[in-house]
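Sequence, please.
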C-alpha cells in the first residue's frame, strides 16, 4: 500500500511539471512561429542601449517583421515579434517602437502594446498579445530564442 501511495505521489509530481515553452504559445492564427536565434553582444555600439533600463533595440534580420528587445533592468529583458499580432502580416504591420510602447502604423488601426508585458494597451481581453521570445542574459550577451 505504501508503494502505491509513493508511486501516485511521484506520478502527480511528474504530471504537474511544466515545460520551459509553456506560456510562449498563444495559438495566434495571424502569426507563424519563426525560428529565432539572436546573440546580441552588449559591447557593440548597435546593442549598447540595452545596457540601460528603459531602452530598446529593434533587430530586423529575424522574425516575421523584426524583433524588439527591451531592457527592464540590467538582468531582465523582454523580446517580442514586431508584427502586429491582431492582423495578418502586411506591408504596414511592422510596429513602431516609442519608449515602452509598440504601435501599429496601419491606417485605421489603433493597436498599441506594452513592451514589458506584450499586452494590448486598450483591450487586452479581446486582442492577441505580442508574440514573445525567450530572453537570457549570458555575461555581456543577450540571447533571444524560441
Amino acid at each position: 500500500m505504501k508503494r502505491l501511495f509513493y508511486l501516485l505521489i511521484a506520478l502527480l509530481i511528474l504530471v504537474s511539471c511544466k515545460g520551459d515553452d509553456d506560456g510562449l504559445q498563444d495559438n495566434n492564427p495571424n502569426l507563424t512561429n519563426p525560428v529565432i536565434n539572436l546573440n546580441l553582444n552588449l559591447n557593440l555600439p548597435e546593442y549598447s542601449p540595452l545596457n540601460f533600463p528603459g531602452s530598446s533595440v529593434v533587430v530586423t534580420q529575424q522574425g516575421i517583421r523584426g524583433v524588439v528587445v527591451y531592457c527592464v533592468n540590467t538582468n531582465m529583458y523582454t523580446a517580442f515579434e514586431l508584427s502586429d499580432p491582431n492582423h495578418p502580416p502586411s506591408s504596414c504591420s511592422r510596429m513602431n517602437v516609442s519608449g515602452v510602447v509598440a504601435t501599429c502604423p496601419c491606417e485605421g488601426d489603433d493597436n498599441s502594446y506594452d513592451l514589458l508585458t506584450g499586452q494590448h494597451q486598450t483591450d487586452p481581453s479581446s486582442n492577441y498579445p505580442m508574440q514573445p521570445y525567450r530572453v537570457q542574459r549570458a555575461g555581456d550577451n543577450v540571447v533571444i530564442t524560441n
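The first helix runs from residue 2 to 16.
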